[in-house]
Amino acid sequence: MLVLIGVLLVIVGFAIRLNPLVVVTVAGIVTALLGGLNPVQILDAFGSGFASSRSVTIFVAVLPVVGIIEFFGLQEQAKTLIGKLAKLTAGRVLLGYLAVRQITAAVGLNSVGGHAQTVRPLVFPMAEGAALRRYGHVPEHIKERIKAHSAGADNVGVFFGEDVFVAVGSILLITTFVDTTYHLHLEPLQLALWAIPTALAAFLIHGFRLLRLDKSLDKEYRKLEATEPAVAGEAK
């Protein structure tokens, strides 16, 4: 039972908004110590885990390319392009990306999107450009909200889309665990089919949240317009 303290540490750490990497690392070390592992074994477990999942860090190889294309104005071009499309809003841009991200993940193309290679240099500037065209200016706190929703659209899309693909690691892990632990024969296709309703529900729910983002921004800008004249009057 003591090893479950690690789960409690994760919950508390996330609740008080500490750095997720630090929280998970500390929770893992505490759990390992309570489970009877010595420091050398803990270090070996961390090293083995990193070596077996090193493909997760492949985005580091993309960062120089992202930096170069940003330096030559990719973000500005994305803003300009979206600014010319009158009917696009920040929420609609992100809804479109959510659909693309989920569909590509469902057919195994997880590397098509991502925070480093797609969200930061392309998706967020497009959403920001839509907000800029609609409202004329984008304050810093609203820009941060759009950044968060851009990252969230990517997370939800890939998380619920990839399970539809039969050869994804999570599907294979589940089938292997069930087969070896419960001595059942579970086909990956069965899990993938059952993941489709979940993916559709995730798209509808998060898509609704993205469309509500536009209404929320409309309301916030109306408040800003109401307060700015008052502040200008006080300054005079």
Automatic annotation (TrEMBL):
InterPro entries to which the protein is assigned, alphabetical: DUF969 (IPR010374)
Residues annotated as transmembrane: 56-74, 164-185, 191-211
UniProt KW keywords: Membrane, Transmembrane, Transmembrane helix
This protein's record includes keyword Membrane: yes
Pfam families: DUF969
Recorded superkingdom: Bacteria
Protein name listed in UniProt: Membrane protein
Organism for this UniProt entry: Sinomonas humi
